[in-house]
Amino acid sequence: xxxxxxxxxxxxxxxxxxxxxxxxxxxxxxxxxxxxxxxxxxxxxxxxxxxxxxxxxxxxxxxxxxxxxxxxxxxxxxxxxxxxxxxxxxxxxxxxxxxxxxxxxxxxxxxxxxxxxxxxxxxxx
Length: 125
Hints:
Layout lengths: L4 E2 L2 E4 L5 E5 L2 E2 L4 H13 L7 E4 L3 H10 L4 E4 L1 H9 L7 H12 L4 H15 L2
Parallel strand pairs: 5-6
Antiparallel strand pairs: 1-4, 2-3
Helix pairs in contact: 1-2, 4-5
């Protein structure tokens, strides 16, 4: 049995709708694998990429910087939450989740920063 990964690129058009662009099998999620994946998208005509949202895979981040240098990168919220939860005691995960959701539910960046400050203050002894 061999391990494979399925890489998926989902684009959001100017109309706001999502569309699967490509989903090939890959051997590894390393720099070369991601470089080939992004090169394939580029060869198919993908341009104007403004934002890439993903996990914090170093190979992907490096490949994005190389092939789409003008695109911004943002860590996927689900992967961010999982990372935070891995550092919280099991009996506190639900409470931490509520706090994170309260921050992310804010209407604008300033409100989120204010809520973040409140959460941090509450967590400090």
